[in-house]
Amino acid sequence: MSKNHKMEIQCPKCHRRSSFTIWDSVNVSLNPELKEKIIDQSLFNFNCPSCRTDALVQYPLIYHDMDRKLWFSNGTIEGKSASENDLANILMDSLRRKDYTILNYQTYDHLCKLINDYE
User: Fold this and answer.
1) How far apart are alpha carbons 76 and 18 in whole angstroms?
2) Which domain, by its residues, includes 84?
3) What three-state secondary structure class fits 95?
4) What is the pLDDT of residues 7-56, one digit of tens each?
5) Cβ-count burial of 21 within 10 angstroms (0-12 exposed, 13-18 middle, 19+ buried)?
6) What is d(CA 43, CA 50) in angstroms, rounded to the nearest whole number?
7) Nearest-CA neighbor of 72 among 38, 31, 44?
């Protein structure tokens, strides 16, 4: 399941605040249309409704492909509670037992390269 939430962000040019969709996780097996939005990076693009400035918004994202058994994340655990980290470790162990490829990415370009490399 893909998961997102809305967040108010400030335009880097006009400084007005607007709502933006942050994707916590994307499951491209269930939502294949999101894969192209990751590759062309439109999933991360903020367009200010006031001044029309475009900006790339950096945020943590989990990429999950059930068909290819891929799990890519940026490995961010800052601000997570001990119980959340324990749950994450249990999930990673479960995915490893199912022969998933689990990799960390550093940038959106790196994520796109991983997606293309495992195509």
Assistant:
1) 25
2) 3-117
3) helix
4) 999 999 999 999 999 999 999 999 999 999 999 999 999 999 999 999 99
5) exposed
6) 20
7) 38
The amino acid at 19: S
As a whole number of Å, the CA-based R_g of the chain is 16
- For the chain, give the mean pLDDT: 91
Look at the chain and report how many structural domains it folds into.
Answer: 1
Tokens read off for 57:
């918004």
Check if the beta carbon of residue 103 is closer than 8 Å to that of residue 69. no
- DSSP strand E in the chain: where? 3-10, 17-27, 45-47, 54-56, 62-65, 70-73, 101-104
Paired tokens of 50: 């006031």
Q: What is the pTM of this model?
A: 0.86
Distance CA 103, CA 119 (A): 15
Residue 85 tokens read as: 């980290």
Residue 57 DSSP one-character state: P
